[in-house]
Each structure stands twice: as C-alpha cells, then as structure tokens.
Amino acid sequence: MSESASFARRIDVLAEIFAFTTAAFARRGVSAALLADVDFVLEELFTNIVKYGRGEAPVTIEIAAISEGVEVTLTEPEAERFDVTKAPPVDTTLPAVQRRPGGLGLHLIARLVDSVQYAYSEGERCSRIVFRKTSAAPSPGAAGRSEDERC
To answer: Coil, strand or helix: which one is 142?
Structure first.
C-alpha cells in the first residue's frame, strides 16, 4: 500500500512535503528513524526540480512501505531529461575552494539511501526518480569516512 500527494513547484511547499512524509510514515508504520534521511533526499531532489526544471505541473510524491523501510517515488511531468544517477562524482577530499560548485546534494543522496533509480519517458516528457531507504543504520558511504572528509 502506498499514498501520494502532489506539490506545486515552489520552495515554500517544503514544509507541506515534510508534513506529508511524517504523516505517511506514521500511517504506514515506517520507522521514524528513517525520516530525516528521506526528508533530506526529498528536499534535495525537489529543490533541484524547482530550481532547474522548466515545467509548471505539480510534482507527485508517492510513499510506499516496504520490508524494513520505505520506497519513495517522485514524478515530474513536463520534465527535461536529467538522470540523477549519472551525476559526476564529487571529490570531497579537496578543500571546498578547489571544488567545482554544485553536485554535492546528489553526491550525498547516493550515500544516504540504499538505491536510486531514474526513468524518463520521452513521449510524455515525464521523469521518475525512485529511491529506497531500508535501514536506520549508518548509510553505506558513511562507514570508514574520516573527519577530514566532511563537507
């Protein structure tokens, strides 16, 4: 079972998105320990859609409880193709002043969730991003990082 809601492409709806995820987690019995990571990922993806997308149609977010976690789908109608899974890597070992601006949010997303998938329908001009978070344990990229690698 899942539930979904649509949100206008405006930054000021982030509070509504967080209220939706909090309520959906509670109704679906998803561990609240996963909520902060899911909200962070949604904020990064949604703000990228608002900042860089050209469409005006609302973005739909669907939340489904899965074994030991959650699967979240963002559907963006009127989208240009941009595969979030193919973002260039970010060298976090470099000092911030030596890094190329941008991309850090997508870099962090890959380390916070178990999987991210992207699909695009050329005919419908619709993109779909699906991510899963199934454990409140430290995210895969977090283990073994030193203090020097913090952003």
So the answer is: coil
